[in-house]
Amino acid sequence: MTGLPPKYDFRTAEPVIQEGWSSSGVYHFDPNHPGEAYLVDTPPPTVSGRIHVGHVFSYTQADVMIRYHRMRGRNVFYPFGFDDNGLPTEVFTENNRGVRARDVGRQAFIEACLGLSHEVEAQFERFWKRLGLSVDWRLRYSTIDPRSRRVSQAAFLQLHETGAAYRQEAPTLWCTSCRTGVAQAEIDDKEGVPSQFTTIPFGLDDGGELSIATTRPELLAACVAVFVNPGDDRFRHLVGSFATTPIFGARVPVLADAQADPNKGTGAVMCCTFGDVTDVGWWRNHQLPLKVVITPDGRMNSMAGQYEGLTLAQARARILDDLGAAGLVRAQRPIEHVVGVHERCGTAIEYLLAGQWFIRLLDRKDTWIEAGRRMRWHPDHMRARYESWIEGLNWDWNITRQRYYGVTFPVWYCRSCAHVVTATREMLPVDPQDTPPPVDACPGCGASEPGWHVADPDVMDTWATSSLSPQICATLAEPFGVDATTFESRFRPMSLRPNAHDIIRTWDFYTIVRSIYLTGDIPWTDVLISGHALDPAGKKISKSKLKAAEDPTAMLEQFSADAVRYWATSVRTGGDTALSEEVFRNGSRLVTKLWNAVRFASGFLEGYAPPRTTPIEHLNATDRWMLARLAETTTRATESLDLYEFAAARIEVERLFWTDLCDNYLELVKARLYEGDAPGAKYVLHHVLLAVTKLLAPYLSHVTEAVYLGAFAGVDGRDSIHVAAWPEPDPAWSDGATASIAAGNAILEVVEAVRRWKSERKLSVAAPLASIVVECPSPLDEALRVAMTDLRGVTRASAIEIRTVAAGPVTVTDIQA
RNA sequence: GGGCACGUAGCUCAGUUGGUUAGAGCGCUACCUUGACAUGGUAGAGGUCCGGGGUUCGAGUCCCUGCGUGCCCA
User: Within chain A, how many helices (H) and strands (E) appear?
Assistant: First the structure.
């Protein structure tokens, strides 16, 4: 062991340490490693702006677990991806570059997106390195790079061949602002939206009227039926008759269906194609006609007659006016209700008919739930989120987006018969817009005239590619001589999927679905769910209103990467946490304390080589207690980490380090260290400090590296603490542990009693004492006598008398200054 | 409306299978510059463990119920 410099300055130290990791390749995956592998399917962050503290929170927690497994000797595969296409990237590019996709043209827009993505990804990578993520940066991917496009298109073709992906002209969740179909997972519930619940009369053939209540009068022109509950006596006689819509005069059937709620409105409800998901179900089950009255950009079409061209909101106002003017408003009251909105833009979701590609979800719900149960979720209750999402699914997964920038569908359609022509595997990745299909004539109808085919004009949902991250990861070792097939056969399933709880319903769910379809196997064995970082007041941090206090880069500069990592792992697994300067400072303090403790010890351990076997003959009661506590703490911390309880593990280690080691053990052994050879104290000091440094290495990855390289590497023998062996207690340390702990507590009783006595008299703890008398039952009295040098040193008493008593607690009965 | 969390010291939280006197950090009070560290140390004050009921020799912990907060889904 050699000495450490007096001060540890993270501002100069952290960049040097990080550079060392880069140049030594300490985090490199070794495909030929014979041992157990640990493969991480890291979340590729959406490249749509700045780094968010939520990223820091989640990625650090995963990194701590990964570092732990690396030190346990696992062959870690830790890639890093970027999700940089699709609607989020488009919106980001449009805002950042001031361009509109539909104005500049598809190709120019794609280039703008790519250029911006590359810039932002470089920034992100620099940031992750500064935070100290132990990523193998050779394994970097983007979901739009050619390799990912090839994987994505190949997966699409495979699902198409098995029927799991199908194309259908079907009612589709639609955003009129983004002008694209969307998936159920992209819809947020917006609560408390004010609206009017208006009761309007439909005419009956006998001249009477049947009133219905609606919040969507603008869809009146799309009404195709009126529904009542089959058990509702008020309307039973009308079932099978017809009603006529006001204004438009359409004659529609009155039908019975259990989904009509007799307690809502008048009990009769109009069915429009389409106002909501219930309408879609009725349309299907009762085989109703189709009347689509709105355009893809949210205006009324010619079916809406005099209202054509108006926006939905304008049409609603005009129709209500017209109904009122005609005396056709029977009742109206303001309500607040929940509206499904597009998560990207907040626009209310509509239901349109469109030709879209879907992946089957609804007919295999049990399969998805069962797959989730084959994985370990940390914390376990997060599995409930996954299952409740699946149980509530109403739609297959629409993967078609009427957008510009994304992975294209490798298909063409025959203009004559609409036959789907797919690309061959050798063509991938392919853009059907600028590449002809692999056949000269339509396999369906034989059409072969010039222009017989048309390329699919759309792109895939981003999740359709990012849900393939395990399959993309399998291609990342190709440059090192391991092809994807070999990789998958050796390393499937992967070990860990870490992500925040808000994307369980998307990324986790879709990835499990794709993995089952493509491989029949679960994608990973463990899922680590993180909570959210909240602002200092405990409120949600909105992405658009980041304050300076929430800037992750500023945090690193002010408090150090280690302090930020400390903060991010100070919460129970899966919990939310508020930003707190106090916790950052606690992290900084721990960094300083560790440095000082090791530096102090290193003065005595210069050139010390610990014996292979525990030198029991040199250990006194203080030493045995310290070793027993070390063994106990190491075991507990390891058990907690095996359960992904990183915060619980660290609390154990901190208690051992700060209280037992620094406050007590170091003070107890100082006399022996200064006075003589002290082989027992040196043995314990070496092991407990090395072990604590290692136990903290996953969290405080920088200062522990500096301490290790400066003080321990020579003896421990590795080039980095992060590939050093995880501490394993010598069984001898735990021999008679119960007695050792009891003896240690007896020693601490004496220490604390003397400290209390001095404190009450406002004396320094270093104030000398003439004598003290300790009353102590057997066999603890023997332990105290063996630790006499330590007790004299820490109490500064010239004479200590140990009186053996029959029973009772250890007490200090007489203190003479 | 259903589900899942959470509710413990002024604040942020820990309390494993029910078991002595309920813990930590910060803050607060008093003191100590002690031969690693003042980004430190010592001592101290501070709690009807959200309310109610139950099981038990014994409940912060298990069960029921009510209240409050947050999230997910209708």
Answer: 26, 28
Which residues share a beta bridge with A337?
A193
Report which residue is nearest nucleotide B72 when distances run from CA to C1': A385
The answer to whether A586 CB is within 7 Å of strand B is yes
Percent of chain A with pLDDT over 70: 99
The interface pTM score, or ipTM, of the predicted complex is 0.94
A674 CB inside 7 Å of strand B: yes
C-alpha to C-alpha distance for A80 and A76, rounded to whole angstroms: 13
The Cα A730–Cα A627 span in angstroms is 9
What CA–CA distances, in Å, run from A790 to A622, A672, A744, A797, A810? 8, 7, 12, 11, 17
Q: Which of residues 697-756 of A have CB within 7 Å of strand B? A: 752, 755-756
Give the mean pLDDT of chain A.
92
Query: pLDDT digit string (tens) for A650-677?
Result: 999 999 999 999 999 999 999 999 988 8
CA A763 → C1' B22, Å?
31
**Length A105 CA → B59 C1' (Å):** 70
CA→C1' distance for A265 and B66 (Å): 32
Q: Which nucleotides of B are covered by protein (CB under 7 A)?
A: 2-5, 12-15, 25-26, 30-37, 39-44, 70-74
Q: Which CATH number fits domain A739-816: 3.30.420.40, 3.90.1720.10, 3.40.640.10, 3.30.2320.50?
A: 3.30.2320.50
Output A797-802 pairs: Cβ under 8 A, ≥24 positions apart.
A797/A754, A797/A768, A797/A769, A797/A770, A797/A771, A797/A772, A798/A768, A798/A769, A798/A770, A798/A771, A799/A770, A799/A771, A799/A772, A800/A771, A800/A772, A800/A773, A800/A774, A801/A771, A801/A772, A801/A773, A801/A774, A802/A774, A802/A776
Query: Which of these CATH numbers, 2.130.10.10, 3.40.50.1400, 3.40.50.620, 1.10.3720.10, describes A25-156+463-568?
Result: 3.40.50.620
Nucleotide nearest to A191 (CA to C1'): B74
Domain borders along chain A are 25-156+463-568, 180-350, 415-451, 577-738, 739-816
What's the pLDDT score for residue A1? 43
Q: How far is CA A182 from CA A297, A387, A541, in A?
A: 14, 21, 26
CATH number of the domain at A180-350, please? 3.90.740.10
Q: Which residue is nearest to nucleotide B69 (CA to C1')?
A: A538
Architecture of the domain spanning A577-738: Orthogonal Bundle (1.10)
